[in-house]
Design goal:
Pnp Oxidase, Chain A, seven-stranded antiparallel β-sheet, 4 helices, about 150 residues
Length: about 150
């Protein structure tokens, strides 16, 4: 019942990315939010049971890429709905870097480029806390939202 209840909670769709020792990782998430504006800090949750997600901790940095409605196909790729290995995922879209070296989506609505300040294992997830080292604001356009187990736009 809890999962059904949480499915009704609308969340902005984002791709969290990191790179460590030449390995890039990206995952579609909705479990991300602001923690503080002074200093600018965000948090994002990734599944603990996937060993590939350790890259987010080992890298010491991550980027939170906020998606527009037109990015839905990219969200599907990074969520695993469209089967594709990690390296091929980054062939979709245009990726660059800001300050930390984490991959950033060049045309994202917003990019939060973060230095990892803490990682906590809580139940089934790793909660990553990142201090924003750099920001990039893209075009303001309809947002991609996930609610009731499907995409919506706002």
């Amino acid at each position: 019942m809890y999962r059904d209840a949480m499915s009704r909670y609308a969340g902005h769709v984002q791709i969290v990315t990191a790179e460590h020792q030449g390995v890039r990782r990206g995952v579609t998430v909705t479990a991300a939010c602001s923690v503080s504006d002074n200093p600018a800090t965000v948090l994002v949750c990734v599944a603990k049971d996937n060993p590939a997600n350790r890259v987010f901790v080992e890298a010491g940095a991550f980027a939170l890429n906020t998606l527009a409605a037109r990015h839905q196909p990219l969200a599907d790729v990074f969520s695993g709905l469209i089967p594709m290995d990690g390296a091929r995922r980054f062939e979709q879209g245009v990726w660059d870097k800001l300050e930390t070296g984490a991959p950033t989506l060049a045309d994202a609505q917003v990019v939060y480029d973060c230095k990892l300040i803490e990682a906590k294992e809580v139940a089934t997830h790793i909660v990553l806390f990142g201090q924003v080292a750099a920001l990039r604001l893209g075009d303001s356009e309809p947002a991609l939202i996930y609610m009731n187990r499907t995409y919506h736009t706002v």
